[in-house]
């Protein structure tokens, strides 16, 4: 009987070690996914800050030409302010959507100002902001992929049990506001 008991104890010990190892593996994968989401958002945040900095310069260049386009400049300024005041990911995403819409309007209205379109500073800033917008779009896609993977994983068995113990909740995808899906109307008079 002694050898049988030792065998049972060893078997139970191995099962416990395997279960603990499996738990650690799941825990580490969930932590990695959570941190990938945070990193993805930080990358977006850095680009949003760069766009904000470039916008300040662009607005100064545009103001002299667009004296009669107060509404467009106001929208850009309001979007900039909303970004500065945003605290959460959702608020920053909303401010980012406002900014994208305001920039579309700004660049569309600039078509009415040939001198502005020919200004080297404006061309440079417009190019830089367009480049940043493309980078932001890429980072949004990566963020949404990371969030989607995380959300799926925390709903799958056995990950969901560990995710619940850790208090992990589904994250929100970065979404474009309905109003920002429409094309900007460009009129050539």
Name a few traits of the molecule:
single chain, 189 residues, mainly alpha, de novo design (two linked rop proteins), 78% helix, 0% strand, disordered C terminus
How would you describe this protein?
This protein has 189 residues and is mainly α. It has a single domain (30-181), classed as de novo design (two linked rop proteins), CATH 1.20.1440.20. It contains six helices and no strands. Helix 1 runs antiparallel to helix 2 and helix 2 packs antiparallel against helix 3. The longest helix is centred in the N-terminal third of the chain and has 62 residues, at 2-63. The protein is rod-shaped and about 95 Å long. The termini are far apart. Residues 184-189 have low confidence and may be disordered.
CATH superfamily: LemA-like domain
**Roughly how many Å is the radius of gyration?**
25 Å
Q: Terminal Cα separation, in Å?
A: 99 Å
Number of domains: 1
Identify the CATH class: Mainly Alpha
Name the beta content range: under 5%
- Percent of residues in helices comes to over 70%
In CATH terms, what is the fold-level topology?
A: de novo design (two linked rop proteins)
Mean pLDDT: 80
- Major sheet characteristics: none
CATH architecture: Up-down Bundle
Tell me the number of helical segments per DSSP (H or I, 4 or more residues long).
6
Low-confidence stretches: 184-189
Structural class: mainly alpha
